Amino acid sequence: MPLTEPVPAAAPLPPPAARAAAVGGSPVRDILAVTARPEVINFAGGLPAPGLFDGEGLAAAFRAVLDEEPERALQYSTTEGEPALRTAIAARTAARGLATGPDDVLITTGSQQALSLLATALIEPGDTVLVENPCYLAALQAFAFAGARVVPVPCDAAGIDPAALDGLVALHRPKLLYTVPTFQNPTGRTLPAGRRAAIAEVAGRRGLWLVEDDPYGELRFEGERAPWIATYPGAEDRTALLGSFSKVMAPGLRLGWLRGPAALVRACVVAKQAADLHTSTVNQLAAARYLADSDLDAHVARVAGVYRERRDAMLSGLADALPEGSGWVRPEGGMFVWVKLPEGYDTGALLRGVVAHDVAYVPGAPFFAGAPDVSTLRLCFVTQAPDEIVEGLRRLRGALRV
Hints:
Blueprint: H1 18-23, H2 27-34, E1 41-42, H3 55-68, H4 70-73, H5 83-95, E2 105-108, H6 110-122, E3 128-132, H7 137-145, E4 149-153, E5 155-156, E6 159-160, H8 162-172, E7 176-179, H9 193-206, E8 209-213, E9 239-244, E10 256-259, H10 262-275, H11 281-293, H12 296-321, E11 327-328, E12 336-340, H13 347-356, E13 359-360, E14 362-363, E15 376-380, H14 386-400
Parallel strand pairs: 1-13, 3-4, 3-7, 7-8, 8-9
Antiparallel strand pairs: 2-10, 5-6, 9-10, 11-12, 12-15, 14-15
Helix pairs in contact: 3-11, 5-11, 6-7, 6-10, 8-9, 12-14, 13-14
């Protein structure tokens, strides 16, 4: 009987990059997976209300593009983006007070990609990045993947403290400051005009890139619009302004943009070539056609009117739903209410029991770059109708007061 050679054991594969394990996944996405049951009233998401999408207008735009220029719509495109869409975005930006031409605009696959491109183009491992505290979670992920040292800037109910920012820039010599100054995620707060001017002055004097993320700014319910930080003296040549159609048109299109100085845009173009070559051609052309044939501003005004009713329903019920001594931010627009429960509450530890009552929120701790405040939580008010919000708050009251 012939002898057989033993089959050698397979060698182990090299492990993934350490940063993949260090950064981890999104707690928000994890919560959405856990709370996907239809009976759960989910205040955890950051999703626009699907019933308010202009499906007919977008379908007409796609039909027109595919009927009239299918070869172009289904072909590769330039990395910078389709000229018609870049021109339309530049015109909308200029009309809102920031002189912009098509060459100043790079189309991205959602404004989330713009964050990743900026991290690639600007950050070396070990560089310091300043962020609001608390901060948009996916920005923290993007900077962590780039190997940045993330330092939180002290904030109050109005947002970033410019004096504290100035001191941190002098101390750490950071590459950039990341901010969502209007209807911030997660807090819903809006940075006043005076502080915007002060931040621009610090950036100009100290030598600092500004990344101004504005996905929610058009969803204003009340009050006067504050100009972009990019419009103030000191910020003009050092600000990357990010925008998105996800909250005002449809997130499934995955269309965002970066508006910035030429050298920075070019660096991000090179980074995008390595990432995905270009954003979907057909989606870009359909969005440009929608902007030409439909009234996006009127659509946004209708959506904001509905969202205002939903915000009011949530605000009117919070006092009864939350433990005595709780506080919250009253947003002038956007999608979120930020809540702080009394000392001794841990919203992460409480979440499992809350979900058992068929309601959900996002614990606040993951949004902090520094020491977290475990008594905080974020509520999204736009996805549910007012009666569902009332019922969700009733369930929350039962979960928090058992």
